[in-house]
């Protein structure tokens, strides 16, 4: 299994180099040369496996022997031993045709833990094997940051810096990131939006001299390992639902979407042979992806702060990976559309391409009020408390999934992370102990201009500090 860039100028690299490269050196995103196919017999066998066993089957088909079988099994075991639920990502039936895939049982109560516990352990494994320090740079709209820090903190030979938009994440999200008192962890609160942070880190990664000098590594979903670990739970969820509904031929998935990584993992699962019907893109009022799926025009709108801050994103990183497949793996066309996006701020696909988009996806952009209404309605009717992101997913399920289909909505975070929104719904909730205790801790963060050069200077200091954990 080799990996290539969506823009065509990186070819034939292996899995570990793909993880280390993160953003491709030509500015594109790395994808496998061929998507592994899962046969019907294999699917049947996998339906009886545990989460960890399914993870091994999927991940090993992409790692292709670069990590020994035993080491990979150990990495997977270690990564999911931190989860509070024995099923790792349990599936709950909420009503007749709606299941919720609970992805928030990891250490930071968000779906990001599923991939970042794994990626943290993988980085640690690589750091030990190569003896080279790993300096991680990431941007977050709220959930990735805490989860990435939790995935690597205390691990030998790793430093991390996370950029978050100052004042634009929930209080619990901010506390989760900034109460970590560890000299290898740096939190920069930028005066800007998540899109500013994501653009700046991509510019820094594109400066190859800087990237190589400081061994910069990515933890965002630009890193293919993130997508890979997220493919697993689509398989797991399908098998759980199929057990209860043996006649179904496919399942729809409704996915709260910001950076397009989570739903892109679902698209990969479908391409691998999982019987997925529609992939429903649930956005909030930052609805670039909804507009693209409905009209074929990809063009950022005005930034809005919403009750689902993790999805307050205009430019979705993984859109480029999808574009690559939509354009029939034609990297020069991807390159030219991405250039066009850079100069005009807009991409428009043909009618035939839009038809293909709509074969796989439907979309709904949830208004702020609707998000709260759905939380109230489901709590009153089913006693199930949705977080605001999952509420967008459930609202989109109601709008887009036909009554006769079964749909799994991805529950991407625990409601306790977004108590501001839950309080507006006049619903009382008890905080899990791990979240409650954050309120008494001091915070460690630096507020900084959203300026690439200033941030790069701060990174140089952090990534050359003597502080790095050792055995
Ligand atoms: N929604 C994310 C934004 C970053 O996305 P990623 O999947 O590329 O890490 C967040 O909560 O930080």
Bound molecules: the ligand N[C@@H](CCOP(=O)(O)O)C(=O)O
Categorize the overall geometry.
globular
Largest sheet: 6 strands, mixed
Distance linking N and C termini: 33 Å
GO biological process, one term: threonine biosynthetic process
Catalytic activity: O-phospho-L-homoserine + H2O = L-threonine + phosphate
Family: Belongs to the threonine synthase family.
Protein name: Threonine synthase
Write the layout of secondary structure elements.
Layout: E1 3-5, H1 15-21, E2 30-32, H2 40-46, H3 51-63, H4 69-80, E3 91-95, E4 98-102, H5 112-130, E5 134-139, H6 143-152, E6 158-165, H7 171-178, E7 185-191, H8 194-206, H9 208-213, E8 216-218, H10 224-244, E9 251-256, H11 261-272, E10 276-283, H12 288-295, E11 297-298, H13 319-326, H14 331-344, E12 347-348, H15 351-360, E13 361-365, H16 368-382, H17 388-400, E14 407-411, H18 419-424, H19 433-436, E15 446-449, H20 452-464
Parallel strand pairs: 4-14, 5-6, 5-8, 6-7, 7-15, 9-10, 9-14, 10-13
Antiparallel strand pairs: 1-2, 3-4, 11-12
Helix pairs in contact: 3-4, 3-10, 4-5, 5-6, 5-10, 6-7, 10-11, 16-17
Bound molecules: the ligand N[C@@H](CCOP(=O)(O)O)C(=O)O.
Ligand LJ64HWYM is lined by residues 140-145, 220-221, 258-259, 261, 310, 317.
Please provide a written account of the structure.
- Helices cover 46% and strands 15% of the residues.
- By secondary structure, it is α/β, with parallel strands linked by helices.
- The protein has a domain at 91-109 and 225-424: Rossmann fold.
- The strands form 4 sheets. A 6-stranded mixed sheet has the order 3-4-14-9-10-13, with helices on both faces. It has a 5-stranded parallel sheet with strand order 8-5-6-7-15, with helices on both faces. A two-stranded antiparallel ribbon has the order 1-2.
- The longest helix is centred in the middle third of the chain and has 21 residues, at 224-244.
- The radius of gyration is 21 Å and the shape is globular.
- The two termini are 33 Å apart.
- The mean pLDDT is 97.
- Bound molecules: the ligand N[C@@H](CCOP(=O)(O)O)C(=O)O.
- Keywords: Amino-acid biosynthesis, Lyase, Pyridoxal phosphate, Threonine biosynthesis.
- This is Threonine synthase.
């Amino acid at each position: 299994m080799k990996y290539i860039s969506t823009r065509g100028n990186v070819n034939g690299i292996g899995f570990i180099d793909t993880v280390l490269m993160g953003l491709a050196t030509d500015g594109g995103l790395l994808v496998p040369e061929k998507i592994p196919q899962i046969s019907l017999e294999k699917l049947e066998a996998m339906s009886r496996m545990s989460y960890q066993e399914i993870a091994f089957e999927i991940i090993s088909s992409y790692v292709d022997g670069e990590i020994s079988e035993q080491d990979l099994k150990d990495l997977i075991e270690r990564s999911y031993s931190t989860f509070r639920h024995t099923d790792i990502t349990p599936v709950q039936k909420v009503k007749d045709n709606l299941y919720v895939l609970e992805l928030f049982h990891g250490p930071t109560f968000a779906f990001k833990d599923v991939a970042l516990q794994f990626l943290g352990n993988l980085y640690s494994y690589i750091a030990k094997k190569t003896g080279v320090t790993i300096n991680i740079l990431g941007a977050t709209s709220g959930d990735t940051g805490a989860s990435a820090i939790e995935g690597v903190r205390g691990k030998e030979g790793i430093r991390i810096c996370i950029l978050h938009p100052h004042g634009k994440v929930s209080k619990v999200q901010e506390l989760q990131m900034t109460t970590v008192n560890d000299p290898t962890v740096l939190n920069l609160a930028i005066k800007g939006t998540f899109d500013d942070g994501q653009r700046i880190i991509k510019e820094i990664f594109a400066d190859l001299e800087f990237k190589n000098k400081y061994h910069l590594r990515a933890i965002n979903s630009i890193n293919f390992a993130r997508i890979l670990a997220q493919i697993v739970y689509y398989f797991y969820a399908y098998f759980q639902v199929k057990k209860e509904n043996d006649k179904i031929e496919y399942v729809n998935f409704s996915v709260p979407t910001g950076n397009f990584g989570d739903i892109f993992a679902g698209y990969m699962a479908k391409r691998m042979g999982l019987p997925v019907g529609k992939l429903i893109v649930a956005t909030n009022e930052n609805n670039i992806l909804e507009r693209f799926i409905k009209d074929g025009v990809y063009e950022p709108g005005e930034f809005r702060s919403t009750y689902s801050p993790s999805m307050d994103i205009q430019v979705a990183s993984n859109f480029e990976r999808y574009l690559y497949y939509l354009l029939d793996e034609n990297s020069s066309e991807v390159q030219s559309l991405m250039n066009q996006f850079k100069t005009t701020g807009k991409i428009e696909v043909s009618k035939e391409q839009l038809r293909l988009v709509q074969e796989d996806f439907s979309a709904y952009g949830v208004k702020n009020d609707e998000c709260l209404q759905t939380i109230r309605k489901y709590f009153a009717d089913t006693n199930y408390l949705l977080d605001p992101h999952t509420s967008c997913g459930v609202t989109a399920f109601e709008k887009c999934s036909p009554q006769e289909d079964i749909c799994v909505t991805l529950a991407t975070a625990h409601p306790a992370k977004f108590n501001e929104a839950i309080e507006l719904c006049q619903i009382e909730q008890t905080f899990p102990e791990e979240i409650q205790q954050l309120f008494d801790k001091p915070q460690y963060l630096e507020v900084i201009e959203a300026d690439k050069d200033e941030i790069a200077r701060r990174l140089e200091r952090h990534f050359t500090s003597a502080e790095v954990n050792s055995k």
